[in-house]
Amino acid sequence: MIRNKLLKIAEKNGYKVVDDPGNLSEKEIRIGVNFAYIFSGDSSFDFKTFLPYLAFLILVIVAGYLIINNIFKISVNEDIKLLGLLKTIGMTKPQIKKLVHLESIAASLPSIIVGDIVGISIGKIILNKIFANNEMLTDVKLSLMVIILIILFSTAFTLLTVFLSVMRPARFAAKVSPIDASRYNETTIKKKYKSENISLGKLARRQVFSNKFRFISIILSMSLSAVILNSVLTYTGNIDLEKGISDVITTDYNIASPKYFRYMYLGSEEGIDKKFIDEIENYKGFKSGGALYYYGYEYDYPDIKIEDNKVAPILLGIDDYLINKQKFIDGEFDKDKWQTGNYIIIGEYGDEKSAFKAGDKIKINVNNKVKEVQVMGKFEYNFSNGLRYFPVIKEDINDESSPTLSLEYIYMNPNEYSKLTGDKSIMSYGFDVEDSEKENFDNLLKTFENEPDFSYDSRDLQIKSTMEFKNLIEFAGYSLSIVLFLISVLNFINVIATEILRNMVNLSILEAIGMTKKNIKKYLVKKNLIYSLSGLVFSFIIMLLVDKFILMDFMAATKWTSYKFVIMPLILVNFVNIIIGILFTGRFYEKHSQNSLVDRIRSLE
Predict the structure, then answer these.
(1) Residue 494 has pLDDT above 80, yes or no
(2) Tens digits of per-residue pLDDT, 198-252?
(3) Distances, alpha carbon 397 to alpha carbons 312, 404, 418, in Å
(4) Which residue stretches of 406-551 are H helix?
(5) Residues 36-65: pLDDT tens digits?
(6) Which bin fits 359, alpha (ψ -120 to 50), beta or left (φ > 0)?
(7) DSSP for 547-571?
(8) Which long-range contacts (CB under 8 A, 24 or more apart) does 95-102 make?
């Protein structure tokens, strides 16, 4: 709520905050809030903006919950006989629950300590990388208070996730009676199967699907890690460099007064001096260019209006060269018609649709001088072809409470624009040059910058800036992706290990009745393949939902991303899981079946 705080400060000090960018009186000021403060609404919290972040956070919590829940459920199953013995000597249900929760805390504390140390260290590395090009922010040093806050938040977040995850296994442990615990075997036969032949594949399928809840929890814990990884890489992989700069600059160079680039262009006295344009056009390597004309706040509604329409027109003159750089969204450009001066082009910004369409005829009134024109078409309005701020124009300029008028950006032939407004000032001038001469033009424009009324921007500067931004996002995204990938892989290894340990008694019995170790390994591999392939299918379905309801809207709201569906990370994670399922399974079972069959069955009684 930064804007509200600024309003209170201004009011307290006797200032009136105005939105009109025109000349200010002594006790009038304007305020602006950086758009980066996405949570700073004028009156209320922008929940829609926050929703993708909230959904992503919930996804992480659910993934953590499923992984931890699965681990502790297996842990409780392994210790079920011990818990039963503890009950026989007098331990109560609340004490059993407390024991399981204390076990989870004992496992959490070293994890939290290691996680904080590694997390803060990696965080510093990432921040230093992000701020490497900013002299003021290089060599990030975290204060003791910040470190304490990080530790407190991460500890609370981890303990909450662990507590929620362990609740169900703890309840299950507390409910089991001593007698049931002493003869507990998790594999229960819910229905009898009749078949003339049995195969390792059928046996694997029956074992995997025998406990639907465990199957779903394992698959979801594998899938969500892959989905989060895929989401991060979808975002970083769809950063569109061209889209990122297209609404800022469409030519190789753009020159204007410093106030224009600082979003403060108010009138013709701040236009670019023609001498700079003349020198540039006569310089070796110049190809072509075009100007953008704007009179500023010399006129305002109702001095300039569209008859029979209560809108605030912003009249701009534009040269042909710049028109050919624009993306038309309605109609098309006809140079011959444009030269007559009887046609205009409408600029549309984002979702704010114009009241007019191609072919409409309108009457523009400038101080009672009326010109009837026809709409040739519409193109996108942005910083590359317009003002670098959005004027706020009231229906009654003397009454702050009067309605705010919608803006109509109207582009005219420069000659007709000059006749109608009486203004010839150039707000900005864009031009293209030969690639081989760019270095010379950079040097020329840098010498011009010594003049107080000159500034410039270039496509190369914008590309460099956007590339740095893209690299930062990718660096942070890939760092997170590596961690998520490791979580996904380690989780699957944990699933394999615990599944083998949990079923060791059954595997020993199968070996006792004649199944070879080679066939048992094949059976275990087939089980893991079922988990891997099911995980891929689940991941794909969840990814489609995440893309549709989270990523597409989130990426549409940013200027530098163009959504394209990405599936390779999902395939990669599941391919790694398949490899692990084949290689790790055999070795792990081999290691835990080295004792004789009799010893293994005895140790598991």
Answers:
(1) no
(2) 677 777 787 777 777 777 877 877 777 778 778 877 877 777 766 667 778 889 9
(3) 12, 10, 25
(4) 414-421, 438-448, 459-502, 504-512, 517-546
(5) 554 444 444 455 666 767 777 777 777 777
(6) left
(7) IIIIIHHHHHTSTTB------HHHH
(8) 96/170, 96/173, 96/174, 97/170, 97/171, 97/173, 97/174, 99/173, 100/72, 100/76, 100/166, 100/169, 100/170, 100/173, 101/163, 101/166, 101/170
Run of H or E including 14? none
Q: Taking Cα atoms as reference points, which of 312, 472, 339, 461 lies closest to residue 397?
A: 312
User: DSSP state, 224?
Assistant: H
Check whether 141 has a pLDDT greater than 80. no
Q: Supply the pLDDT for residue 253.
A: 94
Query: Beta 28-29 vs 407-412: how paired, if at all?
Result: unpaired
Pairwise CA distance, residues 244 & 473, whole Å? 13
Nearest to 304 by CA among 365, 345, 392, 372: 365
- Say if strands 312-318 and 407-412 run parallel, antiparallel, or are unpaired: parallel
Counting runs of H as helices and runs of E as strands, what totals does the chain give? 21, 13
How far apart are alpha carbons 116 and 121 in whole angstroms?
8
Check residue 372 and give its pLDDT: 92
B/e letters for 348-357, b = 16+ CB within 10 Å, e = fewer, are beeeeebebe
What is the per-residue pLDDT for 194?
Answer: 56
- Cβ atoms of residues 71 and 103 within 8 Å: no
Distances (CA, A) of 393 to 26, 302, 397, 406: 21, 10, 7, 8
Q: How far apart are CA 589 and CA 503, in angstroms?
A: 11
* Cα distance between residue 92 and residue 97, in whole Å: 9
Structure tokens at 585: 């399974």
> Distances in Å between the alpha carbon of 197 and those of 193, 200, 202, 519, 523?
11, 10, 9, 16, 16
Taking only the tens place, the pLDDT of each residue in 521-534 is 888 888 888 888 88
Place of tokens 């459920």: 73
Place of tokens 């009676």: 177
- The CB-based long-range contact list for 83-86 (8 Å cut-off, 24+ gap) reads 83/173, 83/176, 83/181, 84/176, 84/177, 84/178, 84/179, 84/180, 84/181, 84/182, 84/184, 85/178, 85/181, 85/182
The pLDDT of residue 8 is 85
The position carrying tokens 């809030």 is 33
DSSP 403: P
**CA-based end-to-end distance of the chain:** 65
How far is it, in rounded angstroms, from Cα 499 to Cα 74? 8
Residue at 240: amino acid letter: D
* Radius of gyration from C-alpha coordinates of the chain: 34
- Tell me, what's the pLDDT at 44? 45
